[in-house]
Amino acid sequence: MKIKHLPLDQNINGWAALRDETRRYPALRGPVTADWLVIGAGFAGLAFARRIAELRPHQHIVVLEALDVADNASARNSGFVIDLPHTVGSTSAELEHANAYRRLLQYGLSHLKHTVDRHHIECDWLNSGKYHCAVSEQFDGEIAHYQQELTTLGEHFELLDRAALRQRLGTSFYRSAVYTPNCILVNPAALISGLADTLPPNVTVYANSPALQIDTQGTIRAQTPHGEVRADKLMLAINGAARGLPLFKGNVFAMSTFATLTEPLTPEQRALIGDIAPWGSTPVNALAGATLRYTSDHRFLIREHVNFTPGLVTGAVETGRHAHRHQRLFARIYPQLQDVNMAYTWSGLISITRNGAPVWGKIADNVYSSAGCNGSGSSKQSAFGRLLAEHALNEDNPLLADMQGIGRASYLPPRPLLDAGVKGFMARERWRSRSEL
Ligand SMILES: Cc1cc2nc3c(=O)[nH]c(=O)nc-3n(C[C@H](O)[C@H](O)[C@H](O)COP(=O)(O)OP(=O)(O)OC[C@H]3O[C@@H](n4cnc5c(N)ncnc54)[C@H](O)[C@@H]3O)c2cc1C
Fold it and tell me: Within 10 A of 155 (CB to CB), how many other CB atoms are there?
C-alpha cells in the first residue's frame, strides 16, 4: 500500500512553543526489525505501544511518527481530557451505550493520570471540570436535555446562569452552562511528549519518519524515506490519515480544526475580568461553536471551526484567516480585552466516522487499528489503544465487552459524494448554530 497523503499543518503549535525543552526523537535510518510496528505516535499509538511493552517485556516495539512527537494532532488539541460522553440518547440501548462509553473514557483518563503521576510528567494537569455552554436561548432545549442525560447517568452537575458565569468566566457572553467537575485540562504537547519519553525501554520511537509504503502480506514491512521496519505485527494509529488506506474501507475521513492561544494577560487586563481560576468550556454544538480555556498562565485558548480536509494539509493562508476569525470572536466574548494579542494559531486533524463509532480491532491478518476519534481522543484513544493491545494479546479485561458494545464505524459513500455530503452537513450545522458565535 502506497501512502498518498501525510498530515501537514503549516503553522506553529502554541502548546509546543510554550515549552522550554522538548526531547527530539531520531528519524529512522537503515533497516530495523521488531515484533510490533506501531504507526502514529498520538494517544492511540502511544497507549498501544506502552501496553504491549508492559505485557511483553521481551518483545521489541517500534513506533514510527511522520512528524515531531510534540507536534502531532494529539499535541495540538485543546487539552480537555474528558470523563463523560456528550450525548446519551433516550432509549435503554442508548443509555447502555453511554454507560459503556463513560466507563471507557474514565478508564483512559485514569490510566493517563496514573502515568502522569508515576513518571512526574509536567503537563499542567488540572482537575478544573468543564462548562458546557450555550450563547443563545435557541439552545435552552439542548442544555435542559444535557442535564437530563447527566441525571440519567447519575452524574453530579451544576446549572449556571449568565450572572454566575460572569463571575466564574469573566464574560457575560454565555446565557447558560452545565458544569461537570471531573474533566481534566492539560498542556497536550507536554502530555504527549511525557507519554513518549516514559515508554518502557523495549519501545523505540522514530520521529519525522513517515511510513511511505506499507506491505502487510507475510512479514509486515514499512518503508520510510531513509529506512525500513520489518515486524511480525502492525498497529495503524494514524487516525486522520486512515482514509487513504484500503484496509479502512473508506469508513473514516479527515477534518481539521483550528486553535489560537493569546499572549498572557497583563495584571491590568486581568483586573478587567476579575480574579478567576483556570477553566475550560465546550460549546453546545462542537462542530459549529467555540471551545474556550483560560490557562494557569493567564492566556485564553479559542478552538473554533471544523473543515473537511481530504488532502490532510492546512496551509499558512488558511491559518491566517482563522487567526483573524478567532481574534474577532475573542473581541465579542471579551469586549473589555480588545488589546489582548493573539500569540499562535494552528490547526490539527481529527477523523470522523458516519455513526461516531471507531474503526477498532483486527482489520487484517496481523494488522490492528484504532481510528475514528470523532473529535475527542485524549481519554478515548488512550483507552482504545490500551484495550486494543490487550485484545491483540488475548488478555482478559471486562472493558473489552464495552469496546464491542460501542459498535463499528459504518459505511461512508465514496468521494465526491462524500465531499458533497460533508460540506452540506457542515453548512447546515453552521447555519443552525449561527447564534452561538
Ligand atoms: C485543535 C484541536 C483541538 C482538539 N481538542 C481536543 C480536546 O480538547 N480533547 C480531546 O480529547 N480531543 C481533542 N481533539 C482531538 C484529539 O486531538 C484527537 O482525537 C486525538 O489526537 C486522536 O489521537 P490518535 O492517536 O488517534 O490520532 P493522532 O493524534 O492524529 O495521531 C495519529 C498520528 O499518526 C501519524 N501518521 C499519520 N500517517 C502516518 C504515516 N504514514 N507514517 C507515520 N505516522 C503517520 C500522524 O502524524 C499523527 O501523529 C482536538 C483536535 C484538534 C486538532
Answer: 17
Q: Which atom of ligand 1 is nearest to the CA of 214?
A: 41
Residue 375 Cβ < 6 Å to ligand 1: yes
CB 177 within 8 A of CB 132: yes
Task: Of 155-169, 190-204, 276-290, 322-336, give the lowest mean pLDDT range.
Answer: 276-290
Of 55-69, 188-202, 418-432, the one with minimum mean pLDDT is 418-432
Does the global pTM surpass 0.85? yes
Closest CA relative to residue 376, chosen from 130, 200, 51, 15: 130
Residues 6+ apart with CB under 8 A from 39: 45, 63, 64, 211, 214, 222, 234, 235, 236, 237, 238
Q: How many CB atoms lie within 10 A of CB 309?
A: 21
Tell whether ligand 1 has an atom less than 6 A from the beta carbon of residue 241.
yes
Distance 1 CA to ligand 1 centre (A): 22
Q: How far is ligand 1, taken at its centre, from the CA of residue 403, in Å?
A: 20
Q: What are phi and psi of 278, to 5 degrees?
A: -60, 145
Query: Of 356, 336, 381, 414, which Cα lies nearest the Cα of 72?
Result: 381
The radius of gyration of the chain from alpha carbons, rounded to an integer in Å, stands at: 21
Question: By the 8 A CB rule, do 369 and 252 touch?
Answer: no
Q: What is the pLDDT of residues 21-62, one digit of tens each?
A: 889 999 999 999 999 999 999 999 999 999 999 999 999 999
Establish whether residue 3 lines the binding site of ligand 1, counting it when its CB lies within 6 angstroms of any ligand atom: yes
